[in-house]
Amino acid sequence: MKESFDYTILAFAGGVGGAKLALGLAGLLDPEHLTIAVNTGDDFEHLGLRISPDLDTVMYTLAGLANPETGWGLIGESWNSLDALGRLGGETWFRLGDRDLATHIERTRRLRAGETLSLVTRHFCRSLGVMADVIPMTDDPVRTVVHTDEGALPFQEYFVHRRCEPRVRDFEFAGITSAKPLPQLLERLAQADALIYCPSNPYVSIAPIISLPGVRSLIASRRSAGMPVVAVSPIVGGAALKGPAAKMMTELGLESTVTALAKHYAGTIGGLVIDRVDAAAAPHIESVGIRTLVTETVMKTDEDKMRLARETVEFAKSLMRHGDGETGRQGDKETD
Ligand code: FO1
């Protein structure tokens, strides 16, 4: 039993930033009180293997096995297969390490044998000692396509192969309208005390999860019944902590600021956690009906992750007591 957080959290997460907060939440809450629903829009087939980068990043991070330099892949990795593949003229732009390959080989085998992605993920997590519920957002294929000035690019082609260089115009989540959210995601969303958007890319990590059929409307109805929805900003001082979120915002004609992020989420969240360097933006954010928590959001150590998780959960709790600030109406109704 961990501390006294008798509070059930559903967290939405994408890659490295999301995984860090997920680790903090896992350190704070008992496994039965935490579900982490992970973006699968970044998934793809590569070298005949089924790759689920965000699921693996969250799983490896929670298992204490993540590569500390990259945030993705495994610690203590070697690259002999990739080097050998390169010598044969094979594709090496997506770096699969020797140990990491085992995950993709075994995932591919299990999926081909008819297991669902959620079952495979659960099996892998338990095998690596991860007790928190890490679930894919869906068992169905959803593939993020980035529309750029150079045409439509599959996500990993844009992100890794092209190093996010083409200018972004729009995003598409191919398959999203026929994808079913994982039943467990809907169950947890119906029951959770709070929903937290980890500091993941709002456009390509959080948006695919929210865009699954039924998810947005369930979030809205839970919010109007008082469930706090809190996002932790991946934008700090006008830059993304990791990845292309700030560059994407600029290319979409937005400012890469926490205020622009708040406007993006306005009407769908009640609270936003922002960094101290962005404290001056708090009144603007509050003016669009979003409560703010100003704190240190850069997570370098495990203590940072635990502290930010604790502060975010306490913030969500306070919003539950006082209404999550849904355009001010919730707060008005509360008697507390
Ligand atoms: N990201 C890179 O920037 N370069 C890579 O070669 C790369 C390989 C890779 C292999 C396995 C895996 O699980 C993740 C990997 N990632 C790599 C990360 C991944 O592409 C992104 O972090 C996410 O898709 C964005 O959240």
Could you give a short description of this structure?
The protein has 336 residues and is α/β, with parallel strands linked by helices. The protein is 41% helix and 18% strand.
Q: How are the SSEs placed, and which strands pair?
A:
Layout: E1 9-13, H1 16-28, E2 34-38, E3 44-46, E4 49-51, H2 53-62, H3 80-87, H4 98-112, H5 117-127, E5 133-136, E6 143-148, E7 151-154, H6 155-161, E8 168-174, H7 183-191, E9 194-197, H8 202-210, H9 215-224, E10 229-232, E11 235-236, E12 239-240, H10 245-251, H11 258-265, E13 271-275, H12 282-287, E14 291-295, H13 302-322, H14 329-333
Parallel strand pairs: 1-2, 1-9, 2-5, 9-10, 10-13, 13-14
Antiparallel strand pairs: 3-4, 6-7, 6-8, 11-12
Helix pairs in contact: 1-2, 1-13, 4-5
The structure holds ligand FO1.
Residues 14-16, 42, 53-54, 56-57, 72-73, 94-96, 100, 156, 159-160 line the site of ligand FO1.
